[in-house]
Amino acid sequence: MTKDNPGFNTLAIHAGAQPDPTTGARATPIYQTTSFVFNDTDHAAALFGLQQFGNIYTRIMNPTQAVLEERLAALEGGTAAVAVASGHAAQLLVFHTMMSPGDNFVAANRLYGGSVNQFGHAFKSFDWQVRWADPADPASFEAKIDRRTKAIFIESLANPGGTFVDIAAIAEVARKHDLPLIVDNTMATPYLLRPLEHGADIVVHSLTKFIGGHGNSMGGVIVDGGTFDWSKSGKYPMLSEPRPEYAGVVLHQTFGNIAFAIAARVLGLRDFGPAISPFNAFMLATGSETLPLRMQRHCDNALAVAKWLKTNDKVSWVNYAGLEDDPNHALQQRYSPKGAGAVFTFGLKGGYEAGKRFVEGLEMFSHLANIGDTRSLVIHPASTTHRQLTPEQQVAAGAGPDVVRLSVGIEDVSDIIADLEQSLAKL
Ligand SMILES: *Cc1c(COP(=O)(O)O)cnc(C)c1O
Protein backbone atom coordinates (compact mmCIF):
# COMPACT_ATOMS: atom_id res chain seq x y z
CA MET A 1 0.00 0.00 0.00
CA THR A 2 1.32 3.42 -0.93
CA LYS A 3 0.29 5.35 2.17
CA ASP A 4 1.98 4.57 5.48
CA ASN A 5 -1.27 4.65 7.40
CA PRO A 6 -4.11 3.45 5.17
CA GLY A 7 -7.64 4.01 6.40
CA PHE A 8 -9.92 1.39 7.92
CA ASN A 9 -11.88 0.74 4.70
CA THR A 10 -8.64 0.17 2.80
CA LEU A 11 -7.23 -2.14 5.47
CA ALA A 12 -10.46 -4.19 5.51
CA ILE A 13 -9.90 -4.99 1.84
CA HIS A 14 -6.12 -5.12 1.48
CA ALA A 15 -4.43 -5.88 4.82
CA GLY A 16 -2.68 -9.25 4.74
CA ALA A 17 -3.56 -10.04 1.12
CA GLN A 18 -1.68 -9.75 -2.15
CA PRO A 19 -1.97 -11.39 -5.57
CA ASP A 20 -0.82 -15.01 -5.39
CA PRO A 21 2.91 -14.98 -6.24
CA THR A 22 2.79 -18.13 -8.39
CA THR A 23 -0.55 -17.88 -10.23
CA GLY A 24 -1.40 -14.18 -10.03
CA ALA A 25 -4.81 -15.02 -8.54
CA ARG A 26 -6.22 -11.75 -7.17
CA ALA A 27 -8.62 -13.17 -4.58
CA THR A 28 -6.92 -15.06 -1.76
CA PRO A 29 -6.68 -18.74 -2.78
CA ILE A 30 -8.02 -21.42 -0.44
CA TYR A 31 -4.86 -23.36 0.37
CA GLN A 32 -6.75 -26.59 0.98
CA THR A 33 -3.74 -28.61 2.06
CA THR A 34 -2.77 -30.25 5.32
CA SER A 35 1.00 -29.87 4.92
CA PHE A 36 3.81 -28.00 3.19
CA VAL A 37 6.99 -29.36 1.55
CA PHE A 38 10.30 -28.41 3.19
CA ASN A 39 13.15 -27.02 1.05
CA ASP A 40 15.64 -29.36 2.74
CA THR A 41 16.36 -30.87 6.15
CA ASP A 42 17.98 -27.68 7.51
CA HIS A 43 14.85 -25.71 6.55
CA ALA A 44 12.67 -28.29 8.29
CA ALA A 45 14.85 -28.16 11.41
CA ALA A 46 14.71 -24.33 11.51
CA LEU A 47 10.90 -24.35 11.23
CA PHE A 48 10.48 -26.92 13.98
CA GLY A 49 12.95 -25.07 16.23
CA LEU A 50 11.13 -21.70 15.80
CA GLN A 51 14.30 -20.19 14.26
CA GLN A 52 12.43 -19.44 11.05
CA PHE A 53 8.76 -18.62 10.32
CA GLY A 54 7.02 -20.82 7.79
CA ASN A 55 4.29 -23.30 7.06
CA ILE A 56 4.58 -26.85 8.38
CA TYR A 57 1.09 -28.23 8.94
CA THR A 58 -2.37 -26.57 8.76
CA ARG A 59 -3.17 -27.27 12.42
CA ILE A 60 -0.46 -24.67 13.25
CA MET A 61 -0.64 -22.27 10.32
CA ASN A 62 -1.70 -22.00 6.68
CA PRO A 63 -1.43 -19.16 4.10
CA THR A 64 -5.22 -18.62 3.89
CA GLN A 65 -5.44 -18.44 7.68
CA ALA A 66 -2.48 -16.02 7.64
CA VAL A 67 -4.40 -13.52 5.48
CA LEU A 68 -7.27 -13.53 7.98
CA GLU A 69 -4.81 -13.14 10.88
CA GLU A 70 -2.95 -10.18 9.36
CA ARG A 71 -6.26 -8.56 8.40
CA LEU A 72 -7.63 -8.73 11.95
CA ALA A 73 -4.33 -7.62 13.51
CA ALA A 74 -4.38 -4.57 11.21
CA LEU A 75 -8.04 -3.74 11.85
CA GLU A 76 -7.58 -3.93 15.64
CA GLY A 77 -4.20 -2.17 15.60
CA GLY A 78 -2.41 -5.16 17.16
CA THR A 79 1.01 -6.67 16.48
CA ALA A 80 -0.08 -10.20 15.47
CA ALA A 81 -3.09 -12.52 15.50
CA VAL A 82 -3.98 -16.21 15.65
CA ALA A 83 -7.09 -17.46 13.84
CA VAL A 84 -8.85 -20.51 15.30
CA ALA A 85 -11.98 -22.62 14.80
CA SER A 86 -14.41 -20.56 16.91
CA GLY A 87 -14.70 -17.71 19.37
CA HIS A 88 -14.74 -20.21 22.22
CA ALA A 89 -11.52 -21.81 20.98
CA ALA A 90 -9.92 -18.34 21.00
CA GLN A 91 -10.92 -17.83 24.63
CA LEU A 92 -9.65 -21.29 25.64
CA LEU A 93 -6.24 -20.63 24.07
CA VAL A 94 -5.95 -17.14 25.58
CA PHE A 95 -6.51 -18.45 29.10
CA HIS A 96 -4.36 -21.54 28.57
CA THR A 97 -1.46 -19.25 27.68
CA MET A 98 -1.82 -17.28 30.94
CA MET A 99 -3.18 -19.65 33.57
CA SER A 100 -1.87 -22.49 35.70
CA PRO A 101 -4.04 -24.84 37.79
CA GLY A 102 -5.29 -22.96 40.89
CA ASP A 103 -5.19 -19.54 39.19
CA ASN A 104 -8.17 -17.25 38.75
CA PHE A 105 -9.34 -14.37 36.54
CA VAL A 106 -11.95 -11.66 37.03
CA ALA A 107 -14.68 -11.40 34.38
CA ALA A 108 -17.66 -9.14 33.79
CA ASN A 109 -20.86 -10.81 34.98
CA ARG A 110 -22.76 -9.73 31.86
CA LEU A 111 -21.32 -11.78 29.00
CA TYR A 112 -22.41 -13.92 26.09
CA GLY A 113 -24.15 -16.95 27.67
CA GLY A 114 -21.72 -19.41 26.13
CA SER A 115 -18.82 -17.58 27.79
CA VAL A 116 -20.59 -17.73 31.16
CA ASN A 117 -20.81 -21.52 30.75
CA GLN A 118 -17.24 -21.90 29.50
CA PHE A 119 -15.77 -19.85 32.35
CA GLY A 120 -18.07 -21.08 35.12
CA HIS A 121 -18.22 -24.80 34.28
CA ALA A 122 -15.82 -26.09 31.60
CA PHE A 123 -12.78 -24.19 32.93
CA LYS A 124 -13.20 -25.91 36.30
CA SER A 125 -11.68 -29.06 34.85
CA PHE A 126 -8.43 -27.09 34.36
CA ASP A 127 -8.76 -25.79 37.94
CA TRP A 128 -9.12 -22.23 36.61
CA GLN A 129 -11.53 -20.15 38.68
CA VAL A 130 -13.65 -17.26 37.37
CA ARG A 131 -14.66 -14.42 39.71
CA TRP A 132 -17.54 -12.28 38.53
CA ALA A 133 -17.57 -8.48 38.72
CA ASP A 134 -19.99 -5.74 37.65
CA PRO A 135 -18.88 -4.18 34.33
CA ALA A 136 -20.54 -0.89 35.35
CA ASP A 137 -18.34 -0.71 38.47
CA PRO A 138 -14.54 -0.90 37.87
CA ALA A 139 -13.89 -1.07 41.65
CA SER A 140 -15.76 -4.39 41.78
CA PHE A 141 -13.01 -5.90 39.59
CA GLU A 142 -10.29 -4.62 41.87
CA ALA A 143 -12.05 -6.13 44.91
CA LYS A 144 -11.80 -9.64 43.37
CA ILE A 145 -8.06 -9.53 42.56
CA ASP A 146 -5.64 -11.59 44.63
CA ARG A 147 -2.16 -13.13 44.31
CA ARG A 148 -3.40 -15.86 41.95
CA THR A 149 -5.34 -13.53 39.63
CA LYS A 150 -3.92 -13.63 36.09
CA ALA A 151 -6.24 -11.50 33.94
CA ILE A 152 -9.36 -9.38 33.59
CA PHE A 153 -11.96 -10.22 30.92
CA ILE A 154 -14.77 -7.99 29.59
CA GLU A 155 -16.90 -7.53 26.48
CA SER A 156 -16.59 -4.04 24.92
CA LEU A 157 -20.28 -4.09 24.02
CA ALA A 158 -22.00 -6.70 26.14
CA ASN A 159 -24.15 -9.46 24.66
CA PRO A 160 -27.17 -9.71 24.95
CA GLY A 161 -28.03 -6.38 26.62
CA GLY A 162 -26.12 -4.19 24.15
CA THR A 163 -24.43 -2.09 26.86
CA PHE A 164 -21.05 -0.37 26.46
CA VAL A 165 -18.38 -0.79 29.11
CA ASP A 166 -15.91 1.86 30.32
CA ILE A 167 -12.85 0.01 28.98
CA ALA A 168 -10.33 2.69 29.99
CA ALA A 169 -11.48 2.60 33.63
CA ILE A 170 -11.17 -1.18 33.83
CA ALA A 171 -7.81 -1.02 31.99
CA GLU A 172 -6.58 1.27 34.75
CA VAL A 173 -7.40 -1.39 37.37
CA ALA A 174 -5.58 -4.00 35.26
CA ARG A 175 -2.53 -1.73 34.83
CA LYS A 176 -2.37 -0.98 38.55
CA HIS A 177 -2.19 -4.71 39.35
CA ASP A 178 0.09 -5.66 36.41
CA LEU A 179 -2.64 -7.79 34.83
CA PRO A 180 -3.51 -8.05 31.14
CA LEU A 181 -6.97 -6.83 30.07
CA ILE A 182 -8.66 -9.18 27.61
CA VAL A 183 -11.58 -7.69 25.64
CA ASP A 184 -14.12 -9.66 23.59
CA ASN A 185 -14.88 -7.23 20.75
CA THR A 186 -17.33 -9.47 18.87
CA MET A 187 -20.43 -7.28 19.18
CA ALA A 188 -18.76 -3.94 18.44
CA THR A 189 -16.12 -5.03 15.88
CA PRO A 190 -13.06 -2.83 15.24
CA TYR A 191 -15.16 -0.72 12.88
CA LEU A 192 -17.01 0.76 15.86
CA LEU A 193 -14.41 0.46 18.60
CA ARG A 194 -10.78 -0.63 18.97
CA PRO A 195 -10.17 -1.82 22.55
CA LEU A 196 -6.36 -1.65 22.23
CA GLU A 197 -6.67 2.14 21.90
CA HIS A 198 -8.39 2.23 25.31
CA GLY A 199 -5.84 0.15 27.22
CA ALA A 200 -6.72 -3.47 26.40
CA ASP A 201 -3.82 -5.89 25.91
CA ILE A 202 -5.49 -8.82 24.12
CA VAL A 203 -8.60 -8.76 21.91
CA VAL A 204 -10.66 -11.85 21.09
CA HIS A 205 -13.46 -12.28 18.57
CA SER A 206 -16.06 -14.70 17.48
CA LEU A 207 -15.55 -14.13 13.73
CA THR A 208 -18.72 -16.19 13.32
CA LYS A 209 -20.75 -13.01 13.88
CA PHE A 210 -20.22 -9.58 12.27
CA ILE A 211 -16.71 -10.06 10.85
CA GLY A 212 -17.77 -13.02 8.69
CA GLY A 213 -21.13 -11.33 8.62
CA HIS A 214 -23.15 -13.75 6.50
CA GLY A 215 -24.06 -16.47 9.00
CA ASN A 216 -22.19 -19.21 7.14
CA SER A 217 -18.82 -19.92 8.81
CA MET A 218 -17.46 -20.42 12.33
CA GLY A 219 -14.19 -18.85 13.39
CA GLY A 220 -12.38 -16.98 16.13
CA VAL A 221 -9.28 -14.88 16.53
CA ILE A 222 -6.82 -13.78 19.21
CA VAL A 223 -5.21 -10.37 18.57
CA ASP A 224 -2.02 -9.60 20.47
CA GLY A 225 -1.78 -5.91 21.37
CA GLY A 226 1.97 -6.23 21.94
CA THR A 227 1.56 -4.00 25.00
CA PHE A 228 1.87 -6.27 28.01
CA ASP A 229 5.15 -7.06 29.82
CA TRP A 230 4.90 -10.84 30.29
CA SER A 231 8.22 -11.06 32.17
CA LYS A 232 7.82 -8.33 34.80
CA SER A 233 5.78 -10.17 37.46
CA GLY A 234 6.98 -13.73 36.87
CA LYS A 235 3.31 -14.79 36.77
CA TYR A 236 3.31 -15.95 33.13
CA PRO A 237 5.87 -18.76 32.97
CA MET A 238 4.71 -19.94 29.55
CA LEU A 239 6.07 -16.66 28.19
CA SER A 240 8.88 -15.80 30.57
CA GLU A 241 10.55 -19.16 31.26
CA PRO A 242 12.49 -21.60 29.03
CA ARG A 243 10.13 -23.95 27.17
CA PRO A 244 11.07 -27.62 27.14
CA GLU A 245 8.97 -28.10 23.97
CA TYR A 246 11.36 -25.81 22.07
CA ALA A 247 14.84 -26.58 23.45
CA GLY A 248 14.66 -23.94 26.17
CA VAL A 249 13.47 -20.97 24.08
CA VAL A 250 12.08 -18.11 26.23
CA LEU A 251 9.19 -16.85 24.13
CA HIS A 252 8.90 -13.30 25.48
CA GLN A 253 12.66 -12.75 25.18
CA THR A 254 12.80 -14.17 21.66
CA PHE A 255 9.59 -12.75 20.17
CA GLY A 256 9.05 -9.48 22.09
CA ASN A 257 5.77 -7.78 21.25
CA ILE A 258 4.35 -10.78 19.33
CA ALA A 259 5.24 -13.32 22.04
CA PHE A 260 1.67 -13.85 23.21
CA ALA A 261 0.44 -14.68 19.71
CA ILE A 262 3.38 -17.04 19.20
CA ALA A 263 2.72 -18.78 22.52
CA ALA A 264 -1.01 -19.17 21.80
CA ARG A 265 -0.09 -20.74 18.45
CA VAL A 266 2.84 -23.01 19.29
CA LEU A 267 1.82 -24.03 22.83
CA GLY A 268 -1.99 -23.79 22.58
CA LEU A 269 -3.24 -24.25 19.02
CA ARG A 270 -0.51 -26.81 18.24
CA ASP A 271 -1.34 -28.99 21.24
CA PHE A 272 -5.12 -28.59 21.67
CA GLY A 273 -5.78 -28.44 17.93
CA PRO A 274 -8.81 -26.17 17.32
CA ALA A 275 -7.56 -25.07 13.88
CA ILE A 276 -9.80 -23.13 11.50
CA SER A 277 -10.27 -24.75 8.10
CA PRO A 278 -8.74 -22.87 5.14
CA PHE A 279 -12.21 -22.69 3.60
CA ASN A 280 -13.69 -20.95 6.65
CA ALA A 281 -10.68 -18.63 6.82
CA PHE A 282 -11.40 -17.68 3.19
CA MET A 283 -15.10 -17.08 3.89
CA LEU A 284 -14.37 -14.94 6.96
CA ALA A 285 -11.63 -12.91 5.25
CA THR A 286 -14.02 -12.27 2.34
CA GLY A 287 -16.67 -11.14 4.81
CA SER A 288 -14.23 -8.79 6.52
CA GLU A 289 -13.77 -6.80 3.28
CA THR A 290 -17.29 -5.34 3.59
CA LEU A 291 -17.30 -4.99 7.39
CA PRO A 292 -17.34 -1.15 7.39
CA LEU A 293 -20.28 -0.96 4.96
CA ARG A 294 -22.30 -3.67 6.68
CA MET A 295 -21.63 -2.47 10.20
CA GLN A 296 -22.75 1.08 9.46
CA ARG A 297 -25.97 -0.20 7.88
CA HIS A 298 -26.56 -2.57 10.82
CA CYS A 299 -26.22 0.37 13.23
CA ASP A 300 -28.38 2.76 11.19
CA ASN A 301 -31.12 0.15 10.80
CA ALA A 302 -30.98 -0.82 14.49
CA LEU A 303 -31.35 2.80 15.60
CA ALA A 304 -34.34 3.32 13.33
CA VAL A 305 -35.94 0.09 14.58
CA ALA A 306 -35.31 0.97 18.23
CA LYS A 307 -36.88 4.42 17.76
CA TRP A 308 -39.88 2.88 16.03
CA LEU A 309 -40.39 0.21 18.71
CA LYS A 310 -40.49 2.91 21.39
CA THR A 311 -43.59 4.35 19.73
CA ASN A 312 -45.48 1.02 19.64
CA ASP A 313 -48.10 0.53 22.38
CA LYS A 314 -47.43 -3.25 22.73
CA VAL A 315 -43.82 -2.49 23.71
CA SER A 316 -43.04 -1.62 27.34
CA TRP A 317 -39.35 -0.70 27.08
CA VAL A 318 -36.45 -0.61 24.60
CA ASN A 319 -32.83 -1.02 25.68
CA TYR A 320 -30.60 0.49 22.98
CA ALA A 321 -27.55 2.60 23.78
CA GLY A 322 -28.05 4.58 20.57
CA LEU A 323 -31.24 6.15 21.95
CA GLU A 324 -30.58 9.58 23.43
CA ASP A 325 -32.46 8.85 26.66
CA ASP A 326 -30.77 5.47 27.22
CA PRO A 327 -28.70 5.31 30.45
CA ASN A 328 -25.80 3.85 28.41
CA HIS A 329 -25.90 6.60 25.75
CA ALA A 330 -23.01 8.70 27.13
CA LEU A 331 -20.65 5.69 27.11
CA GLN A 332 -21.77 4.83 23.59
CA GLN A 333 -21.04 8.38 22.41
CA ARG A 334 -17.60 8.22 23.99
CA TYR A 335 -16.53 4.75 22.81
CA SER A 336 -18.53 4.12 19.67
CA PRO A 337 -19.81 7.35 18.12
CA LYS A 338 -20.46 5.77 14.70
CA GLY A 339 -23.25 3.62 16.13
CA ALA A 340 -24.47 1.36 18.93
CA GLY A 341 -24.34 -1.98 17.15
CA ALA A 342 -27.09 -4.22 15.82
CA VAL A 343 -28.13 -6.27 18.84
CA PHE A 344 -30.52 -5.08 21.51
CA THR A 345 -33.45 -6.16 23.65
CA PHE A 346 -36.94 -4.84 24.21
CA GLY A 347 -39.89 -5.84 26.40
CA LEU A 348 -43.42 -6.85 25.45
CA LYS A 349 -46.28 -5.79 27.71
CA GLY A 350 -47.85 -9.23 27.21
CA GLY A 351 -44.96 -11.09 28.90
CA TYR A 352 -43.95 -14.70 28.19
CA GLU A 353 -46.87 -15.74 25.96
CA ALA A 354 -46.66 -12.53 23.93
CA GLY A 355 -42.92 -13.11 23.46
CA LYS A 356 -43.48 -16.59 22.05
CA ARG A 357 -46.34 -15.50 19.79
CA PHE A 358 -44.47 -12.42 18.58
CA VAL A 359 -41.48 -14.51 17.48
CA GLU A 360 -43.74 -17.02 15.74
CA GLY A 361 -45.65 -14.24 13.96
CA LEU A 362 -42.56 -12.76 12.28
CA GLU A 363 -42.12 -13.58 8.61
CA MET A 364 -38.82 -12.10 7.42
CA PHE A 365 -36.94 -12.34 10.72
CA SER A 366 -35.30 -15.72 11.36
CA HIS A 367 -35.88 -17.30 14.77
CA LEU A 368 -32.48 -18.67 15.79
CA ALA A 369 -29.60 -18.45 18.26
CA ASN A 370 -27.11 -16.25 16.43
CA ILE A 371 -26.26 -12.60 15.82
CA GLY A 372 -24.39 -10.64 13.18
CA ASP A 373 -25.91 -12.12 10.04
CA THR A 374 -26.87 -9.94 7.04
CA ARG A 375 -30.40 -11.19 7.79
CA SER A 376 -32.53 -9.89 10.67
CA LEU A 377 -32.64 -12.39 13.55
CA VAL A 378 -34.82 -12.75 16.62
CA ILE A 379 -34.91 -14.86 19.76
CA HIS A 380 -37.12 -15.03 22.85
CA PRO A 381 -34.49 -15.96 25.47
CA ALA A 382 -36.91 -17.07 28.22
CA SER A 383 -38.38 -19.86 26.07
CA THR A 384 -35.06 -20.87 24.42
CA THR A 385 -31.48 -20.04 25.50
CA HIS A 386 -32.42 -19.23 29.11
CA ARG A 387 -35.31 -21.65 29.64
CA GLN A 388 -33.42 -23.80 32.17
CA LEU A 389 -33.13 -20.83 34.58
CA THR A 390 -35.66 -19.89 37.25
CA PRO A 391 -37.73 -16.73 36.53
CA GLU A 392 -35.57 -14.81 39.04
CA GLN A 393 -32.35 -15.98 37.37
CA GLN A 394 -33.82 -15.08 33.96
CA VAL A 395 -34.50 -11.52 35.08
CA ALA A 396 -30.99 -11.19 36.58
CA ALA A 397 -29.49 -12.35 33.27
CA GLY A 398 -31.49 -9.76 31.31
CA ALA A 399 -33.65 -12.56 29.88
CA GLY A 400 -36.94 -12.07 31.73
CA PRO A 401 -40.18 -13.54 30.34
CA ASP A 402 -41.07 -10.37 28.37
CA VAL A 403 -37.63 -9.89 26.75
CA VAL A 404 -37.10 -10.20 23.00
CA ARG A 405 -33.61 -9.90 21.46
CA LEU A 406 -33.09 -8.64 17.93
CA SER A 407 -30.02 -8.72 15.71
CA VAL A 408 -31.06 -6.18 13.12
CA GLY A 409 -29.94 -7.08 9.60
CA ILE A 410 -29.06 -4.98 6.56
CA GLU A 411 -32.30 -5.37 4.61
CA ASP A 412 -34.35 -2.24 3.79
CA VAL A 413 -35.31 -0.80 7.15
CA SER A 414 -38.88 -0.24 5.97
CA ASP A 415 -39.24 -3.99 5.40
CA ILE A 416 -37.74 -4.79 8.81
CA ILE A 417 -40.18 -2.46 10.53
CA ALA A 418 -43.12 -3.76 8.46
CA ASP A 419 -42.40 -7.30 9.64
CA LEU A 420 -42.20 -6.22 13.30
CA GLU A 421 -45.38 -4.19 12.89
CA GLN A 422 -47.48 -7.02 11.42
CA SER A 423 -46.41 -9.43 14.15
CA LEU A 424 -47.04 -6.91 16.95
CA ALA A 425 -50.45 -6.17 15.46
CA LYS A 426 -51.43 -9.84 15.83
CA LEU A 427 -50.77 -9.88 19.62
C1 LIG B 1 -20.81 -16.04 19.73
C2 LIG B 1 -19.97 -15.36 20.73
C3 LIG B 1 -18.87 -16.01 21.31
C4 LIG B 1 -18.51 -17.44 21.00
O1 LIG B 1 -18.09 -17.58 19.67
P1 LIG B 1 -18.29 -18.92 18.82
O2 LIG B 1 -17.71 -18.54 17.49
O3 LIG B 1 -19.75 -19.23 18.77
O4 LIG B 1 -17.50 -19.99 19.52
C5 LIG B 1 -18.11 -15.30 22.22
N1 LIG B 1 -18.41 -14.04 22.56
C6 LIG B 1 -19.46 -13.38 22.01
C7 LIG B 1 -19.74 -11.98 22.43
C8 LIG B 1 -20.28 -14.02 21.10
O5 LIG B 1 -21.34 -13.37 20.58
* C-alpha-based Rg, rounded: 22 Å
Q: Please name the CATH architecture of the largest domain.
A: 3-Layer(aba) Sandwich
CATH superfamily of the largest domain: Type I PLP-dependent aspartate aminotransferase-like (Major domain)
Mean pLDDT: 96
CATH topology category name of the largest domain: Aspartate Aminotransferase, domain 2
What's the number of helices?
A: 17
Give the tally of β-strands. 14
β-strand percent reads: 5-15%
CATH C-level category of the largest domain: Alpha Beta
Helical fraction? 25-40%
Class by SSE composition: alpha/beta
* Weakly predicted, low-confidence segments: none
What is the total number of structural domains? 2
Give a quick account of the main beta sheet: strands, pairing sense, barrel closure. 7 strands, mixed
Distance between the termini: 55 Å
Strand order of the largest sheet: 1-9-8-7-4-2-3
The coarse overall form would be globular
What binds here, in terms of ligands, is: pyridoxal-5'-phosphate
